[in-house]
Amino acid sequence: MTEFNIATKMSECLASGTVTVVVGPEYAAMVRFLEPTGAACLLTNETLPTLPVLLRNIIDVNYRRSVIEQARKLVLAQLSTAVMRNRWLTGVGALNY
User: Fold this and answer.
1) What's the first-to-final CA gap in the chain, in angstroms?
2) What is the pLDDT of residue 48?
3) Residue 97, in any domain of the structure
4) Which residue from 32, 41, 90 is spatially nearest to 70, judged by alpha carbons?
5) What is the pTM of this model?
6) How many domains does the chain have?
7) Is the CA virtual torsion 63, 67, 46, 13 positive or negative?
8) Closest residue by Cα to residue 45 from 22, 26, 20, 21
């Protein structure tokens, strides 16, 4: 559960091959980042009453497969070490020495 930052473990959790559950307020950075991707199950203050539904969804193999596949796509496109390395190199290259 976090509000203001994106946990460094997030990409590791998403790449783990199991469903990631993120708990936090709707305005939290990770919730806002992950919500449009379908790569994790989100539980916010507003969705807390739907926890039983979320748990039933996670048990469903097709739902779980879909979330894990979206997580895999997100990790490969935006969170892999190769992507991060290129972002850092681009940023460092843009610095004026």
Assistant:
1) 39
2) 78
3) no
4) 41
5) 0.83
6) 1
7) positive
8) 26
Q: Is 17 left (phi over 0), alpha (psi -120 to 50) or beta?
A: left
Is residue 1 a part of any domain in this protein? no
State pLDDT tens for residues 22-33: 988 999 999 999
Read off the pLDDT of residues 39-71 as tens digits, 9 standing for 90 and up. 999 998 887 778 999 999 999 999 999 999 999
Residue 41, φ and ψ in degrees, nearest 5: -90, 130
CA distance 78 to 84: 8
Q: Residue 58, exposed/middle/buried by CB under 10 A (0-12, 13-18, 19+)?
A: middle
> In this structure, are residues 64 and 17 in contact, taking their beta carbons and an 8 Å threshold?
no
Which residue, among 19, 20, 31, has the nearest Cα to 62 in the 3D structure?
A: 19
The range of the structural domain enclosing residue 63 comes to 10-92
